[in-house]
Amino acid sequence: MGGVRELAGSFVVPGPCGVAVRDRLGHLTPRDEEVLRAVGEHQGRLASRDLKARCADGLEHSAQTWAARKRDLTPLSSSRIAGAITKATHDQWALARRCQAAHIQTLEAGIRTLRQRLSLPIGEKGTKQAAGGYRSRSEWFHKSRRLAALEARHAAVVADRQAGRVRVVRGGKRLLNTRHHLAEAGLAEDQWRQRWEAERWFIAADGESGKRFGNETIRVTPDGEVSIRLPVPLAHLANAGHGRYTLTTRIAFAHRGQEWADRITANRAVAYRIHLDTGRGRWYLTASWQRPVVKTMTLSAARARGMIGVDTNADHFAAYRLDRHGNPIGDPHRFSYDLSGTAGHRDAQIRHALTRLIHWAVRAGVAAIGIEDLDFTTEKTREKHGRRKRFRQLISGIPTGKLKARLVSMAAEHGLSIVAVDPAYTSQWGAQHWQKPLATPRRTMSRHDAAGIAIGRRALGHPIRRRTAPPPHDRSDRAGHRTAQAGPGDRGREGTRPPATDRPPGGPSPNGTRTREPSASNTVRDAPSTQQRVQDSLTHTG
Fold this sequence. Notes:
Structural class: alpha+beta
Number of strands: 13
């Protein structure tokens, strides 16, 4: 097909490999909070010092430098705390390097687009595959200045990457910049300072299998008692043996509580993190652990009981149920959400919409949900869409990465698999082949509902076209069989059928009905002879 790019194959998204649960540390005494703040501040300073040392090493980092940093931190904390700090530092530096590489790719994409458009004559129209020239000399001039700025920025980032330099802020760059815009954020200076300090604290410990209750630094017993192994400089604050401080509160995980209890009873590794929510003034304990890798459902098994195709939009999910042959069943379903407001509100809206979607999929009896493998990384740039600011805001508002991660983890809890498909042409072809045929006076079909059908059919391995292709010339098969969406073993499908001579007389037909045995014709001419012809035994006399 001319002008149509090659489509990527569908695949089953791997399930989650980790679990995290959280509970509030309520009813803490002033003494408890004082100890937690002291531990967080002390270990936070050690983490900042270690991150500075790691960034100074750059590309010269090795196992020896890692071990040296850990030895320097051990006298000021403990061996286990030093290991947790250095590991967190290494992960943060690696994340900064990945973000740096992604930033370089974004700058290169913008530079290519600007160079291509600046090379075209002014006023030249573009095509669907590439943008045209700029509309005026003034715009051409401003874009040339923009190109020079991007090239300078790209050269600086590339130089940083080659030298092993990264830009990392403990506590977050966004919160750091909020210090200069307190009025817009609705914060006082002391409120911002409390949040900044709390974000830079470090009260975390990695789990250790074989140790008591799966963690030696932050220990939680099956009955909910929480105790912390204090660093050496703060050992005088201990209220229990072996330099430990036991909190007065008890915790009880409402979600996955039994799974957590089974792990710590068997002394399996569980990592813990304690943090303060300054907005609410509450302390929380988060427990996390790894799950054994579960074999992902095969694509054929996911398609066995049909599919639910989901089209992701800026304000709702458009879903349609299909049987295993790709035929739509019932009416479209739409699950709305509102992505305005705070990050917590947006996250809750997506979680509620996905919960309704998964519950409907469970009631429908399907084994998988088909979604688009969306990634708008290269489509958000101002160089590609120019003045289409509202469109850039639209695609930037769709939480593709967070949506996929949350949907996979939530669906795995209900035994559902997620099938990701190529998003190319789903809205266009869905509207072309499915929107008008399924629209009735009682059913309103939108372009997004039709796209849900297209996504589901692609996830099932069927073409998006609504009907099979007719014979090219006549009813014979000399030009090839017509295409069919049903498999060769499915009865009633379009295509060749076994002749009647392949079954015994009176036996069942291919579609399961019983046929009548052939009967004798009522005409003498066509009647078969049922008696043997013999010579008359009477003799003729003369």
